[in-house]
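tmp note - GPI transamidase component PIG-S
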Amino acid sequence: MVETKKSSPRYDKSTQVYSALGVAFVCIVIGVPLWWKTTETYRVSLPYSHIAELAAKETICSVDVTIVIFDERIDKKDLSLFGENLKEALEGTSGSSGLKIKFRGNLRDAYEDEQMILKRSLNLEDLDREIDREKVLEEHGKYSFYIIPANDKLFPGTSDIYIGRRRNVYLHMKSPALEDLNRLVPILKPIIRDKFVNVAALVKTFESASGAQHLETDKASMRAVHSNPGYDVTFTLLNPQPDILNVQWDIKRGVEKFLQPFIEKLMQFASITVKSQMLYYTRLAFKPKHDKNNGRYFLKQEDLPHLINPIEAKLGSHVSNNPNLNFVVYIPTRDQSPLHIYDEKDFPTATNSFLSPRWGGVLLHNMPSPQENTTLPAQVQVDMKAMMEVFLAQLKMLLGFPQAAFPQADVALPDNSGILLWELDYWLRYRTLENIASSTATLKSLAQLLEQIGNIVINDDIGREVQHAVEEIDKCHTLLKQNKLKEAFLSSKEAIVASEKAFFDPSLLELLYFPEDQKFAIYIPLFLPISIPVFMSVIQAIKYFRGKDKEKKE
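out:
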């Protein structure tokens, strides 16, 4: 029998070799790249270099100050010297390498309309109101100081400084001499730098939000809640003896009359949601001390923290992304009434209330005891005006509004919102710097994390949020430099929301805890049974071709 070529052993061996090489070729050239591509971690491109630039960038916050002179007798050279002295006094260092407060000054004579308003004004309140009417645009962060010549009608002698409702300050200058002008410099500097702007507080807030550590504690920053797009406010009435006192409170009317103007003032900057509740049979967890001299029961400063803990457990759970601020009205029991809070000098506090940082406030509201032969429970009403005045002041402190005192100046009373516009400007500047520093630090931390851990998924949503945050931070820097406070705050709010959305995105955690050794535990049982036969076949193919070469040489 004749052996054909196709049935020869050499042909069969050659077919096996080429088949093995074909399988190896498909596995290595097609299979491995296909597996690598289909199993790689999806990571959208992020602006790492831009984020690093933002973290190293200096934040410049401009403040515009206009000095208006009503006295035409003042020499122009003296005015120029006065302007230079004031500029030098305001341009002190901020004490921060990352934040610069830049004061921009403008010195001018009063306009004719302003001179006419001054002549017909009967008092400083009229002057302030009429000058504000002349201003068409709402200018956040722009302060005007009106230097008024000797005028006993407007300045009867109580004070030479009057701070208006909005952004105007009126100062009394007794003579047009240079000495009298220079006397105003040490008066203007603390008002502008330490009160209206409060450079030290801004620097500390900015550095804390950036991640810097401070050895000294700042009471104002520790007291205020962190910046947030919204806040929840809960009013709670605690009546431990409803069988004796039927306590009524018109909380709806109280909120509408006293708190709603405040909420509307902040509406475009933050949303405030108000809730209320009444709790019965909730008593103090400890017995207050008794003053036998006057029959009062009292709590000392060190007792106040122990009052909050048992109350907080009964206020109910809070389900919201917004921070919750609690304001509690406690009606003392008949056997512990009247109940007062004593200060460190053992005197009753004026408001009989206290504030707990970042939590809320508590008001002890004493009610008159029921008269004899009165049908129980006796009906009593909570004084909503007194209550809301206390809680509104506490709410302002918890939100970070300034508590600046002006001992040498008369300050105009705010409108029904309870906010003076220079206070609003400070709050916007304070929150803007906090937001921009916090969002930049968040993006920097996120970028470092994603660069260090290469197997974290970065999806398109995270990429969009990061890019949006970077754009808003850039925009905020520009607006702060231009002293556009309102627009800068809104941009900073967008930046902080976007950066936190990106940082806390749940998809970032999917492969975060998936170490390399677990990959081997998964891939070895899968690829080892396939790779060993392919590898051995390739070795046999190499031996076959080497043997073939030897035969040719022989």
